[in-house]
Amino acid sequence: MQSKATTPEQYLSELPDDRKNTMLKLRNVLKENLPQGFEEVISYGMLGYVVPHAIFPKGYHCDPKLPLPFINLASQKNFIALYHMGIYADKNLLDWFTAEYPKHVKTKLDMGKSCIRFKKIDDIPFELIGELAGKMSVQDWIAMYEKNLQR
Predict the structure, then answer these.
(1) Contacts of 85 (CB under 8 A, 6+ apart)
(2) pLDDT, tens digit, for every residue of 88-111?
(3) Would you say 84 and 132 are in contact if contact means Cβ atoms under 8 Å apart?
(4) SS3 call for 52
(5) Alpha helix locations (H) across the chain?
(6) Which residues contact 44 (CB under 8 A, 6 or more apart)?
(7) What pTM value is reported for the model?
(8) How far apart are CA 15 and CA 75, in angstroms?
(9) How far apart are alpha carbons 22 and 121 in whole angstroms?
């Protein structure tokens, strides 16, 4: 479900009450743990954390007018989704996350290539998400992105 919101605050204000507190908490965890340089925006109708053009002028290769995406957070119809491009691009980070996840949550990890789906808001491992958010700096992400783009 893509939102038509133009600001993170508007996006959050439009959420149903049963999701709003959880999304606010996830947003705060990301903002508190992301290394300096990432910027919060609306990206693809979701909350997005990107590398701004001021840091990476090339932008996103699919559409260079867009800043380089890193993390997106969305309230979907049946779940909350966290999209983390670092997990998709870095096998070591993916391996770390999949090994850590069961230490924090009893339910099975529901994950796509970069998407972590949380169907039960009580099962969201906020501490682990914060740790994941802090694992890759802007410079690390740019280097990983460019390395994978050359393949």
Answers:
(1) 69, 70, 71, 114, 141, 145
(2) 999 999 999 999 999 999 999 999
(3) yes
(4) coil
(5) 8-13, 17-33, 85-89, 91-104, 126-133, 138-149
(6) 2, 69, 72
(7) 0.93
(8) 8
(9) 7
What is the chain's alpha carbon radius of gyration, rounded to the nearest angstrom?
Answer: 15
Contacts of 75 (CB under 8 A, 6+ apart): 1, 15, 16, 19, 23
Angle CA 99–100–101, to nearest 5: 100
Do 79 and 118 form a contact (C-beta atoms < 8 A)? yes
3-state DSSP call for residue 124? coil
**DSSP one-letter code for 111:** B
Task: Quick: pLDDT tens for 45-54.
Answer: 999 999 999 9
Residue pointed to by tokens 């957070």 = 73
